[in-house]
Structure formats: C-alpha cells, structure tokens
Automatic annotation (TrEMBL):
One GO MF term: L-amino acid transmembrane transporter activity
Name by which UniProt lists this protein: XCT protein
Keyword annotations from UniProtKB, A to Z: Membrane, Transmembrane, Transmembrane helix
KW Transmembrane (keyword) present: yes
InterPro entries in the cross-refs: AA/rel_permease1, AminoAcid_Transporter
Membrane-related topology note: Multi-pass membrane protein
Main location: membrane
Transmembrane segments: 12-30, 42-64, 76-100, 120-142, 162-183, 203-221, 233-257, 277-297, 332-354, 360-377, 389-410, 416-434
Domain of life: Eukaryota
C-alpha cells in the first residue's frame, strides 16, 4: 500500500557510527604486524600509522566534497562514472565485485573467527578449519540482518561502534599506565635505518590504510542520509580525527607492552597484548575485538549492496539488483549477491595475501575518484558546493595513491599482478556486454529469468526518485 523506495533513515549519529564502525574493525588488531614487518622499526611504523591517518583525512575530505556535488549513492562507482565516464566506472565495479569486496570481507571475517575462538584455545592457536567455519557463520548472520531490515542494521552498527571504542580503551589505558611509569625500553633505537627497506613501504601503507579504510562509507548511502550536505562533512571530520588519535595511542600501547619481536611473532596482536598486560580480561578482549570485526562486516555489506543497486540502476549491472523487497524495503538481491564469492575466499584465503591482493585495486580506483573531483571542478566551475576543500588536498591525495599503487608492483609483484589482471579482464566484458547491445533472443531470455527471480524474491523497482 505504501511507496517502495529506500528511506532516509541514516541520521548524523548513525552516519558517525557507520564510519567508526567501518574503520575500527579488524585492521587495528591485525594490521600492526603488517605495518611493522614492512616498515622495519617501531619508529617508522608509528610514522606510517600517522601518515595513513593524514592521508585518510585528505581522502575523506575529498569524498565529502564529492558527496555534496554528486547527489547519488554508490561511492567510488558513481563518482568515477559521473566524472571520468562509463568505462573506468565499470572496471571499478568489475574489480570491486570479483576481487576487492569479497577479499576485504574475507579478511574481516577471518579476523572475526580467529578472535572469537582465541579464548577457547589459548595459549594454542585455534584450528584453521574451525576459524573458517565461525568466520562464515558470522558473515551469514550479518547478511541475513541486512536482508531483513535497514533500521536494525543501523542500530546494530551504532551499538557495535560503542563496543569498538571500549575495546580500544581497554588496550590504550594499561599501555599508557605502563608508559607513565617509565617503561620506555621498547622504544630505544626506535628509528633503526638498517632495517628500513624502501620497496616494502607501499605494503606497510596498504596494511595501515586497510585499518583506516571505511572513511568513504557515507558516500555509498548518500540517498539514505538525513541532511547529507551538513552531515557528510561533519561525520567524516569527527570520525577520522577520533580514529587517528585512537590508533596512534593503541599502537604505542602495543609497543610499550609487547615490543617489536612479540608483535611480529603474534598471530593475534590484541590477544598477545592482553595476555601480557591484563590477564584478568584474557577472555573479554578477544570477544570485544570479534564484535568489532562483526560491525565492520555489517558496515561493508550495508554499503556495498548500495553500489550494486546504483550500478544496476545506471544500466551497468543486471536490473534485478536495483530492486527492493516489497515489505522489508531492503535491496535484497544486491545484499545476497556477495554470498558465494566471500564464502570461496574465506575457505581458500590467507589474511595478509588477501590484503595485498585487494589493496592494489582499491587504492587505484580511490585515486581515480579523487582525480575525478579535480576534473569535475574544471568542467563545472559554476557549481557552488556547500563544502569545498583546497585544491592541493585532492591533488596530493591522488598523486600519493597512484604512486603507492605503482610502487607496489616492486613490493609484491605476484599478488599485485593478479589484482591488475582482474581489473584488465573487465575490458572485454565491457565491450561485449555493456557497450554492445545484446541480441533480441538473449535479451528475451535475460528478462524472463529476471522476472522469475523477481517473483521468487518478492522484489520490485524503486518507485520514488531519491536523488
């Protein structure tokens, strides 16, 4: 009886929770090892963490301006489509669906499974099959919730954001207490240049930027935001500053308690920290970390389903995925589509290889999106955006992203080459399916299958334009 469309249910508090909940996830609990390993010393790793935070702020400010200029949801995809054209936007969509998003979701899911099982098997490592089984169960729970209700997904994200900040506080407080008592021995010779390997620095940045990734999440749900012109910039600035401060203090706490060798040797840094500093909480902190990862999974599914929804609406993805459930008002087909790929990557993947694999494609297209902001400003000088950043911010962010992507070929040629091949494989698909019209017989079969799936899933096209 009521119109079917995606409602504006994301307030400022929910936008802030979405950003915090997406950024503070598995990254700060697994990335310290990757940053330290590829930067070579405690001091340089802290520099990398701070630089990643500043770089994230630059990117977040660029996306905040894009979000006020371009009123559609869809994040990276819609920004590249509107500024650079249909081919690069389809290549992003292709890489995002087949590489970036399933690998990212698999990394977070595996971290969830590892930390959830850690208290039951400590001091031994949890069995890999058990970790993967729990990882998949957690992912399927989030998938079901996002298919069921937008409101409940947003409420869960708000609650889990509070838990994430509590988990960080439980790591920061004991570390700062020890540091105040004079335990600075792990910071002696912090900037050891002999262990610095420059060609590994891009991988250190990938690990650090993975921990900060999530600052762009509001751009995916722009059409569902209440007062987006005001709330996008406000939520972005407050959340990124909060995370930078939290991450820097957390890493200082790690090094104060554990030291460089212990961080490198630990399969779960947060658990090793608690074993050393807070034995009474040995079973609590891993659960808090697991819930933190759970929130990141929730935010990732919530936002990426909107990318598929918008791409379908723009004609670059099958029309079924721009449909909404008639009672739940959720983009059900788009939410469910990631199910098989994430399952496969969780079953066969390793956290650190997956991280390098998807980071190349992700940062390539984020760099192209901010390049698109520069192009959009040049093409449309008449547009008066309610939020505008100085030109050097998108220019410097774009250069750093593309330079890091280029350098990563020297650091990890195998995984990066796989990621590059995945992007390039989208070229023939674009020209054969998107650019060129299908035959009438194929089109009839395609729409027949779409209609049957539409009846099965109880979904219809959005009835009200929301942008």
């Amino acid at each position: 009886e009521e119109a079917i469309f995606l409602r504006k249910k994301i307030t400022l508090v929910r936008a802030f929770s979405l950003l915090i909940g997406s950024m503070v996830g598995s990254g700060i609990f697994i990335s310290p090892k990757g940053v330290l390993k590829n930067s070579g010393s405690v001091g340089f790793s802290l520099v990398v963490w701070f630089a990643c935070g500043v770089l994230s702020m630059f990117g977040a400010l660029c996306y905040a301006e894009l979000g006020t200029r371009i009123t559609k949801s869809g994040g990276h995809y819609i920004y590249i489509l509107e500024t650079l054209g249909p081919l690069p936007s389809f290549l992003f969509l292709w890489a995002e669906f087949f590489a970036i998003r399933p690998a990212n979701s698999a990394v977070v899911s595996l971290a969830f499974g590892r930390y959830m099982l850690e208290p039951f098997f400590a001091p031994c490592a949890a069995p890999v099959p058990a970790v993967k089984l729990v990882s998949l169960l957690g992912y399927y729970m989030v998938l079901t919730l996002n298919s069921w209700s937008v409101t409940w997904s947003a409420r869960l994200q708000t609650a889990l954001s509070v838990i994430k900040l509590l988990a960080l506080a439980l790591i920061i407080v004991p570390g700062m207490m020890l540091l105040a008592q004079g335990h600075t021995e792990n910071f002696q010779d912090a900037f050891d240049r002999q262990s610095l390997v420059l060609d590994k620095l891009p991988l250190a940045f990938y690990a650090g930027m993975f921990a900060y990734s999530g600052w762009f999440q509001t751009s995916f749900v722009r059409e569902e935001l209440v007062r987006p012109e005001r709330n996008i910039p406000l939520a972005v600035i407050v959340s990124v500053i909060t995370v930078i401060v939290g991450y820097m203090l957390t890493n200082v706490s790690y090094y104060t308690v554990l030291g460089m060798q212990d961080v490198l040797a630990s399969p779960a840094v947060a658990v090793s920290f608690v074993q050393r500093a807070f034995k009474s909480l040995i079973s609590v902190v891993p659960v808090l970390v697991a819930l933190s990862c759970f929130g990141t999974m929730n935010g990732g599914i919530f936002t990426f389903s909107r990318t598929l929804f918008v791409a379908s609406r723009e004609g670059q993805w099958p029309p079924l995925f721009s449909m909404i459930h008639i009672r739940r008002h959720t983009p059900l087909p788009a939410v469910m589509l990631m199910f098989p790929l994430v399952t496969a990557m969780v079953c066969i993947g390793d956290i650190y290889h997956l991280m390098n694999f998807f980071s190349f494609s992700r940062w390539l297209f984020i760099g192209l999106a901010t390049l698109g902001l520069i192009v959009h400003r040049h093409r449309h000088p008449e547009l008066r955006s309610p939020f505008k950043v100085p030109l050097f911010v998108p220019v410097s962010f774009t250069i750093i992203c593309l330079f890091t992507v280029a350098m990563s070929f020297y650091s990890d040629p195998v995984n990066i080459s796989i990621g590059c091949t995945m992007v390039l494989s989208g070229f023939p698909v674009y020209y054969l399916i998107i650019h060129r019209q299908m035959s009438s017989r194929c089109r009839s079969l395609f729409y027949y299958l779409t209609h049957k799936l539409q009846l099965l899933l109880e979904v219809v096209q959005q009835e009200i334009k929301t942008y």
